[in-house]
Structure prediction request, 274 residues.
Amino acid sequence: VLQKWVNREISNFDYLIQLNTMAGRTYNDLAQYPVFPWILRDYTSEELDLNNPAVFRDLSKPIGVVNEKNAKAVKEKYENFEDPLGIIDKFHYGTHYSNAAGVMHYLIRVEPFTTLHIQLQSGRFDCADRQFHSIPATWQALMDNPNDVKELIPEFFYFPEFLENQNGFNLGQLQISKEVVNHVVLPKWAHSPEDFIYKHRKALESEYVSAHLHEWIDLIFGYKQRGPAAVEALNVFYYCTYEGAVDLDALTDEKERKALEGMINNFGQTPCQL
Prediction:
């Protein structure tokens, strides 16, 4: 697969899907849903110029520190963390770039994810301000908050329907602007959900991304995923998210086991290292 990708016999999209599959990711499990990168950082211009490197996100950095301002806080958190019991290793992020709630967050407007989201929120929609209501606002929140480290799901590159509230769900209104949450607000350069998907997919297959995608792959699937390289890259997540970090079969206490399983399912899982 790597050779095919290098020879450009398969697209960046196909390569990412295949890597996800090999690393145990699947559409059948929200806790291990395929993970895709944020690839752009320009969600405000009237036109999107894919020949300009400045419109792309830095793929060599985890999403939590793409904004340089967050790097210091993330570093300090890691250096100052100490578990008195010695069970929990140091980590940069207590949340994860891919988890079940994040998948439902993005896909809230389409079933069965709407129902799953409502079940997760004890029978109602989460408050409007926390909903996925705008692509530019979601990116801004990532830049402002080092604790929000959500990457994307594959649907951002082929499924315009998830950006529209075709079922007319009542998702509430935003507190400050009183704006009703309906269809997802798109970047200015996208004239419709279909146009957004078309341009976003074009961005994924652009020269810039083709030349830098391996840097992100190293972080998610490769050698910067764990160990000293991960520490240096500010890319260490909560210990429970890693494959082999916890031996559930060794836990005799049923309560403890259930709690840990719940944690692993809700907090996200790092893909198998390839």
